[in-house]
Request: fold
Amino acid sequence: MNNLVRSELFKLSKDRSFWSMFVILIAAAVSYPMLVYFVLNIESVSIKELYTAVALEGANTYIVKFVPCILAGFFISSEYSIGTMKSIAASGNSRMRIYLAKLMGFAIGAVIISLTFPIVMPAVGTLFYGINDMPGLDYIVQTIGLTILYALAFASIMALAAISFTDSGKTIGFLILFFSLFDSILYMLSQKFIVIETIYHYSVSRLLLDIGKFNLGNGELLKLWLVPIITFIVFGLIGSFVFQRKEIK
Reply:
């Protein structure tokens, strides 16, 4: 298992799509505070607002849901077309171990992508504006921890789609379309069906919007922590089940 995980991490470190997205996100995170300071000539900005409103609630709600979709297509689905998946499946390792290792490698990539904006943008902002109205350390730790969990949860859903399709383009297209329409469709159905309403309010896609909120109650905070963990476990097991029964040509 350790060798499989190391192999996936090595492939992640060499994946051009991962590094391309990572560099683009860093460039965007660095550019925003510089744009505000040099172009808009705004000399006083709240780091709390930059971190919460811009990095977390603004950019990262889209980054967590959409950017790793591209990585899922190239990192997992493309291995069908180039024959790597067939070679791995014939290596003698159980398919469950193969899938879990692949999920772990992909999930780590998704986490790194998802943490780029919340870490880089405020850090660059402090270079220009100091620690003006800096959020508390406990709030930063909480939101970073939640971002990691939600990145893992979305990664488990993306990995399931990626091993179900044998083409990177189909995987990327399906995932982007799915996450674009999922909230709207589920919200409309939740207005008529109580069961759907419960699913909607406990979905990671809906709760992702609450990561940056302040003064959350114990019940709300517990829900924010538990839902992505359960989602990751459930979709990880489903993905493993699907992969074990999938014909690999």
Residues 2-244 form one domain. The two ends are 23 Å apart (CA to CA). The chain has a mean pLDDT of 90. The chain has ten helices and no strands.
